[in-house]
Every structure is written in structure tokens, then in C-alpha cells.
Design goal:
Length: about 425
């Protein structure tokens, strides 16, 4: 497998607006604009540059096709990108209104839609900036626009004017209502999924705490219990207990009791809070080794192997990706680790069928119906929640993730960190130890 060495980029501030949501809303707007343009020209007989209007509508449709082809549908857009796309929508709508009567056109109500989207999904400064841009466009249209011949006649025919106003209000309210419902639904899904991620992290942290305590107890109790066992075996052979032996057994029993009293402080033992990269990978790989699956681990880099801080999110996320690879592999899983120039890259690859194109573009959605074929039932009933949790927890550790299909076949998951984000904080550990 070829080592991936793409540069690590700091994550830009993101919005809660997904590519899929934005493009679906724009398709709705395109359909409404197209219907309004054709009805105005061919049903009501208005004379306006309708061909140019169709070109503007086609530009929005083309932009949608590019976004859906080039970006994962589950991608939550950077705030600046989302703001630019919504600003485009405002500009395109302003162009249509300029060609069709300006603010006198009842469909000017739709100026509210992009601003409503920004208010619910963007940081305040971006939303305010978009509102000011909308206000500036509206001001320009109020003083400069092409007249809509025949509209004055329509204004005098009160029934038709009321019908036009009603239609504009219905389409505008319907668009905003559909948007609000969709965003609310996505917000509920995301909230539930993040709650599940937090629960998984808490469970993983608890399990590692218990594992650490068990290891420490086994280490600490080994010596006194060994002494007690040695002495009692001599007694079982018929030897009379000597006072020194009885005192020794009593002292060792007191030592065991003292060790048990310190259980709450064992969690802060620095030895239990760190592990090498090799140990991390082996802990994630070990449960999935078997006679019918070859799991190959290849770790190499510049300098000594990194020593990492134990992190339940990292343990769970890496373990989930390896489990997913093992589920869908035909016979082989490869875990490759490289470190250089302060960066750590881990790649998990399998030789299975890989990700279908539609699934690959939606990875990161909390409730994704997977089409991957494998030996076991899909994670969480095929909803993709496990993969979402793993991705979320790994990103919380500072990871940059990318999912793809390998050229030779099979799925690949690539993770990249700054090693400094994963290294133990010696000062913090010393402070915690001294506190306990």
C-alpha cells in the first residue's frame, strides 16, 4: 500500500450547513424560479427578458451539479464557503428581479430565504454580513430595475394581483417552511448522534479505567499474595506456623488492604496513561485476529516510535475503523503507520469490495444506509452510526480523516494528526498525580 503523505491543514471554522442540504434547497428554488418564469411569460403574457432569466436559473442548476459531484454530500461547509454560496443565491435572485420588475415583483419576498438559512446555520458575523448584502441589493433594486410590461395592468385587475401576491407568499412560505423542517430534522439527528458519541466515549473511558485499575491491582498485589501463598503452602505440608510467619502473613494482608484503598488513585498512574503507537495499534487489532483474516501492521518513521497519551476517543475510533475493515475484508487488512516532521499518519485498508460511490460521498452522516456487502450485519442496523461516532471522536483528538477506495480495490481510511496533540502532557500529569 502506498503511503499517503498529504499535508495536514488546520480545520477552518465550519457552519452547520451541509452540502446536501444547500443543494436540495437550491433545487427547490430553481424549480420555483423556472415555474414562475414560464408562467409569467407564456401564461400571463408578460414581456420581459425571459431567456436571460432562464440562463440565470441554469447557472444555479449547474452550480448545484458541480457541488454534488465535487464535494461529499455530508460535508459541513466552512462558514466562509457557505456564506459565499448564499451570497451567490442572493445575487442570482437579484438578477432575476432586476429583469422582472424589481421590488414590485411579489417574488422579492424570496430575499428572506437565504438570510433565514444563514441565521440558522452560520456564525453571527457571517449572518449579519449576508443580511447587509441583501439589504444593499434590495436598495439597488428599489432605484434601478427593468420594468415588467403589463404588470401595471395586472395591478389594476385586483383579482389577478391578489392571486399573484398569494402565489408569491405561498411559495416563499413553503420554501422557508421546508427549509426549517429539514434543518430541524437534521439538528435532531445530529444531536442524537452526538449524544451517542458521548455515551460511547464515556463507556470507552470507563472500560479503560477499569482495565488500568485491574492491571495495576494485578501488579501491586502480585508480590504480597505470592508471599502469602508460599507461607500457607508450607503450613499445608504440616509445618507448625511460626510466630514470624504469622506476622509476615498479617503484614502482607495489611499491605493488600492498603493497595485496595488506593484504587481511586491508580487512575492517575502515568504508566497507565501512556502507551506507544505500537501498543495502541495492537490493542485495536488484537480482538480481530483470526485464522480466516490476515491483519498486517506496518509501523515506521523518523526517530523513535511516538509515545501517546491514552485517549478513549482515539481507542474507540481506531478500533471501530479496524473492526469495520475486518468485517468487510475478503482475507486481509493492513494497518500502516508513519511519523515524520511532527506528523502521524495511520491508514487502515481492507481488500473487500470498497465503498459504493453513493456511500463514499455521504460518510459522516449519522444515519446512513450503507450498501457495502460484508460478512456480518451492518453496523447499527446499517445506519452508519458507529462510523459517525468513530469519525466524531477521532476528529475530537485532532485527526483529519479521509475515506476513499484504493486503486487496487478495497476501502481505505486515512487519519492524520500533529504528534504534539497526542503526546502526554507531563506537567498536567504531574499536577494530577500530586493532587491525588
Amino acid at each position: 500500500m502506498t503511503t499517503l503523505t498529504a499535508p495536514f491543514f488546520a480545520n477552518a471554522p465550519t457552519s452547520s450547513l451541509r452540502v446536501d442540504t444547500l443543494t436540495r434547497l437550491r433545487w427547490l428554488a430553481v424549480a420555483g424560479q423556472l415555474a414562475a418564469t414560464l408562467i409569467a411569460r407564456f401564461a400571463l403574457g408578460f414581456d420581459f427578458p425571459w431567456a436571460i432569466c432562464l440562463a440565470l436559473i441554469a447557472a444555479s442548476a449547474a452550480l448545484n451539479l458541480v457541488l454534488r459531484r465535487r464535494m461529499p454530500l455530508s460535508l459541513r461547509l466552512p462558514a466562509a464557503t457557505a456564506t459565499a454560496l448564499l451570497a451567490y443565491d442572493l445575487t442570482q435572485l437579484a438578477g432575476l428581479l432586476f429583469l422582472a420588475g424589481g421590488l414590485q415583483n411579489p417574488f422579492s419576498l424570496l430575499f428572506v430565504a437565504p438570510v433565514a438559512v444563514s441565521a440558522a446555520t452560520l456564525p453571527p458575523r457571517h449572518s449579519v454580513g449576508l443580511f447587509l448584502y441583501m439589504a444593499a441589493l434590495a436598495a439597488l433594486l428599489s432605484v434601478s430595475s427593468l420594468p415588467l410590461p403589463g404588470f401595471d395592468v395586472l395591478a389594476e385587475r385586483s383579482a389577478l394581483r391578489l392571486a399573484a401576491d398569494w402565489l408569491a407568499l405561498a411559495i416563499g412560505a413553503g420554501f422557508i417552511g421546508v427549509y426549517a423542517g429539514r434543518v430541524a430534522h437534521e439538528a435532531r439527528q445530529l444531536s442524537d448522534a452526538l449524544a451517542a458519541a458521548d455515551l460511547a466515549l464515556e463507556r470507552q473511558s470507563h472500560l479503560h479505567h477499569l482495565d488500568g485499575i485491574a492491571a495495576a491491582v494485578a501488579h501491586e498485589l502480585g508480590t504480597p499474595l505470592g508471599t502469602i501463598r508460599l507461607v500457607t503452602r508450607e503450613w499445608l505440608k504440616g509445618e507448625t506456623p511460626a510466630p514470624d510467619d504469622l506476622r509476615l502473613v498479617s503484614d502482607e494482608a495489611d499491605r493488600c488492604r492498603g493497595i485496595l484503598r488506593k484504587l481511586s488513585s491508580l487512575r492517575a498512574d502515568p504508566i497507565l496513561q501512556t502507551l506507544s503507537l505500537g501498543q495502541l495499534v495492537e490493542e485495536a487489532v488484537a480482538p480481530h485476529r483470526g485464522p480466516d483474516l490476515d491483519i498486517e501492521v506496518d509501523l515506521a518513521g523518523d526517530g523513535p516510535e511516538p509515545v501517546l497519551r491514552r485517549n478513549p476517543g482515539l481507542d474507540y475510533g481506531l478500533g471501530n475503523l479496524i473492526e469495520n475493515a475486518a468485517d468487510f475484508a475478503d482475507a486481509r487488512v493492513r494497518v500502516e503507520g508513519r511519523w515524520r516532521a511532527g506528523r502521524l499518519i495511520l491508514v487502515v485498508a481492507d481488500d473487500g469490495p470498497g465503498f459504493p460511490a453513493d456511500v463514499l460521498r455521504q460518510i459522516g452522516d449519522p444515519y446512513l444506509r450503507s450498501a457495502r456487502e460484508g460478512r456480518r450485519i451492518k453496523d447499527e442496523g446499517g445506519l452508519g452510526l458507529g462510523l459517525f461516532i468513530a469519525k466524531t471522536l477521532l476528529e475530537r483528538t485532532g485527526a483529519s480523516l479521509r475515506f476513499s477506495n484504493a486503486p487496487q480495490g478495497g476501502a481505505m481510511a486515512r487519519m492524520e494528526w500533529r504528534i504534539a496533540d497526542l503526546e502526554p502532557d507531563s506537567e498536567g500529569e504531574e499536577a494530577e498525580t500530586s493532587t491525588n
